[in-house]
Specification:
The chain is mainly alpha-helical and 255 residues long. 73% of the residues lie in helices and 2% in strands. It has 12 helices and 2 strands; from the N terminus they run ααααααβααααβαα. The protein has a two-stranded antiparallel sheet with strand order 1-2. α1 packs antiparallel against α3, α5 runs antiparallel to α12 and α7 crosses α9.
Length: 255
C-alpha cells in the first residue's frame, strides 16, 4: 500500500480537500507566514508558479493516497480512454463559440502567449488539481455516489474564483461568479465520470470554452448577463448529453 492509503476514510478525505483548497494559494500562505516565494521575472510568472505548485500538490498527495497497484497518472485520471469522447465534447462546445461571436467582438489584443497560458496551461493545472486530485482520486479511495464525491471540489472551485473576484468585497458579482464556476466544476466532473473517471473530456471542454472567452471580448455587463451565463451552462449541459449518448451507444456496440 502507499504511505497514507491505510488512513481512515475521513482523514483521506480531509487531506484531499485541504490539498484542493490550498493548492493554488501556497504562495499566499507562504507570504502570510513571512516566507514569500518570489515569482519568476517572466510574463505570467506569478500565475505560472501558482499553477505549478498546485500540480505538484496534486501529484504528491496522489502518490501518497492512491490505491495499491495503481499508477500515479491513473490515480489522477490522466490515463487515456480513447479519443472519441473528447472529440464529441469538443463538438458540443461549438455553440459557445458561435454565441460568443454574436455577443462579443474579436479580441485583437490576444497573443499566442495569452492564449497558451489562459486557455491551455492554467485550465490543465486546474483540472489536475480540482478534478484529478479532488474527484478522480477521490472516487478511487472513497466509497459513495460519484455526484456526492464531486461536490467538494466543485464548491472549492467556485470558492477560489469567488476569492479571485474579491470575495466579500466583490459583493453580488463575486458570489454570482463563484456559483456559476462551482456549477461548472461539477459538470466537468460529470463529464469525467461519464468517460471512465478520466480528465480528458472535462479538460477539452474547459480549454475550448476558455479559449472562446479569450478570443472574443465581451462587456462586463454582457459577460455576467443571462445570455452569456446561459450560453456557458447550456454548452456544458449539451456536452454532458452528447457524451452520455455516445457512451451508451459505445456500450451497446460492444454487446
Amino acid at each position: 500500500m502507499t504511505v497514507l492509503s491505510r488512513l481512515p476514510a475521513a482523514m483521506r478525505l480531509l487531506l484531499v480537500v485541504l490539498g484542493v483548497g490550498l493548492g493554488l494559494n501556497l504562495r499566499d500562505i507562504a507570504a502570510a507566514i513571512g516566507t514569500p516565494i518570489p515569482a519568476p521575472p517572466i510574463p505570467y510568472g506569478g500565475s505560472l508558479l501558482d499553477n505549478t505548485l498546485a500540480v505538484l500538490v496534486a501529484l504528491l498527495l496522489a502518490a501518497l493516497l492512491r490505491p495499491r497497484g495503481m499508477s500515479l497518472l491513473a490515480s489522477l485520471g490522466l490515463r487515456g480512454n480513447g479519443r472519441s469522447g473528447p472529440m464529441w465534447v469538443l463538438l458540443a462546445s461549438l455553440p459557445c463559440w458561435l454565441g460568443l461571436a454574436l455577443l462579443g467582438t474579436p479580441n485583437t489584443a490576444l497573443t499566442a502567449l495569452d492564449a497558451t497560458m489562459l486557455a491551455v496551461l492554467f485550465p490543465l493545472a486546474e483540472e489536475v488539481l480540482f478534478r484529478g486530485l479532488g474527484f478522480a482520486l477521490l472516487v478511487k479511495i472513497m466509497r459513495g455516489p460519484w455526484a456526492l464525491l464531486a461536490l467538494p471540489q466543485a464548491l472549492l472551485f467556485g470558492w477560489v474564483h469567488w476569492l479571485g473576484f474579491g470575495g466579500f468585497d466583490g459583493g453580488g458579482t463575486a458570489l454570482f461568479v463563484g456559483a456559476v464556476i462551482a456549477l461548472g466544476g461539477f459538470i466537468f466532473a460529470w463529464l469525467d465520470h461519464l468517460d471512465g473517471d478520466t480528465l480528458w473530456c472535462g479538460l477539452v471542454l474547459h480549454v475550448s470554452m476558455n479559449l472562446a472567452w479569450n478570443v472574443f471580448s465581451l462587456d462586463d455587463a454582457v459577460a455576467l448577463g443571462w445570455q452569456a451565463t446561459g450560453l456557458r451552462i447550456g454548452t456544458a449541459l449539451l456536452a454532458v448529453a452528447i457524451l452520455a449518448w455516445h457512451m451508451r451507444r459505445r456500450r451497446q456496440t460492444r454487446l
